Amino acid sequence: MYLKTLIPLLFALNFCINPQLLAEQPNIIILLADDLGYGELGCQGNPQIPTPHIDSLAQEGMRFTQAYVTAPNCSPSRAGLLTGKIPTRFGYEFNPIGARNEDPGTGLPPAEQTLAELLHDQGYTTGLIGKWHLGGAADYHPYRHGFDEFFGFMHEGHYFVPPPYQGVTTMLRRKAIPGGGKGRWISDQLIYSTHMGYDEPDYDANNPIIRGGQPVVETEYLTDVFTREAVSFIDRHQDKPFFLYLAYNAVHSPLQGKQADMQRFQKIEDVHRRVFAAMLSSLDQSVGQILKQVHSANLDRKTLIVFLSDNGGPTRELTSSNLPLRGEKGSMYEGGLRIPFLMRWTGTLPAGQIYQAPVSSMDLFSTSAALSGAKMPDHLDGRNLMPYLLKEKTGVPHTEFFWRQGKRAALRLGDWKIVKMRGKPGAAAWELYRITDDLSEQNNLASERQDKLQELLTRWNELNSQMKPALF
Question: Which residue intervals define the domain Sulfatase N-terminal in the entry (predicted)?
Answer without folding.
Answer: 26-373
